[in-house]
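BUG-421 | component: ligand-complex export | severity: low

The export step for glycine jobs runs without errors, but we want the raw record kept on the ticket for reference. Input record follows.
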Amino acid sequence: MDVLIVGSGGREHALAIGLSESNSVGDIHCCPGNFGTAQIGTNHDIDISDINSIVNLSKKLDIDLVVIGPEGPLVSGIADKLTQIGISCFGPNKDCAQLEGSKLYAKKLMRKLNIPTGKFLEISNHEEIENNLSFFKPPWVVKRDVLAGGKGVTVTSNVENARAAIKNAIKLDGLVLLEEHLEGEEASILVLMDESGYSILPASQDHKRVGDGDTGPNTGGMGAYSPAPIVTPSVSSRVDEEIISPMHHYLRNLTNPFRGCLFVGLMIDRDGSPKVVEFNVRFGDPETQVTIPLISTDLGIVLDSVARGNIANIDLNFHNKAIATVVLASENYPNKPILGRELIGYNSIIDEGQIRGLIHFSGTNVDTNGNVISSGGRVLSATGMAPSIIEAIETAYQVINSIELEGSHYRKDIGKGAFYK
Ligand code: AMP
Ligand code: GLY
């Protein structure tokens, strides 16, 4: 199969590596890709928002399978356009993508299906604000009903800030969600799903805040590891029973069923009760970097089966390993990242038998002089894969410490809370 991957993050680089190791896969193309994907396949300079050009390129290249990384093109209906012309697409159709595209839609569906999640209120005019604020205890969670890359949420114990965030969202979007603040620890579960069945990938844990000790603003994700011990076998079976199974029942019975990755963002409380924070309709970044390399089955066959509605016939196997990844971000990320700086040490790899370290590139490009330069807020993630999670974390840090990028920063505590007690 010739495959086209849409996106330009570390997630897409990890998918490209996995697909390049698959016997079923021939040529690999990326739209637009990054420095990492260019080492594996052919990059095409098309923006992810230009879905018509991506569809035309797939036709022109006679692509067999298109794998969509980010949510934007899915919410815009790229899967519908590709399947209309007979090209398999990993990633759900436009209607199913509303699960991520609209937080309100997702919350209402969870309420209807009785899926555990926090309470919420929808606010669309200023007169409702005070009453609704008093309905919840602080901290308040104010969430915009738009795609915002994990950055559309304000969590604050300052009522002035909560009020300002609500007013700002109403001005921009016409409405806003006020949510119950969920306490506990977060975990991400990626589920490969189509109408024939689903397969749950090993759970991972992202680190959303920019600073050590979970401080500072939310980001797209600063580092992750898998498997995540917070998802014990008993938590896992509750997530399956109370969340994934009812979601699958609903999504498989739609006229156009869900085919792709359902990303379940969870909050797990002290008693091990899981609640949904959010659904995404795609692989996570950086969760993909720590999850996809754990799959030992041919990735091309796995993704193509989902795209064809045939996952139930795939025997999915995993390596008995642990993976950790640490994100290197540009100066000022997540606010206004400073881009265009030269990356030194980008060839870092570690290959010591069972222990492997590598770079998953994200916002990186090559300038006219042939230098690798930063072109995004998250520049790369340094990934370690090893028999134990401690070795994996140490390997990831060994890789990131050998990279230089002026003004860049990364978290020093990835996995600390879980593994260094
Ligand atoms: P979202 O915008 O739904 O992707 O949320 C981004 C991040 O904000 C989540 O990963 C959580 O860290 C935090 N968050 C969102 N909703 C809640 C909530 N109801 N309670 C606690 N934290 C939340
Ligand atoms: N790492 C969180 C996400 O991909 O949404």
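Assignee comment: Attached the raw record above. The chain has four domains: 3-95, 119-179, 182-319, 320-421.
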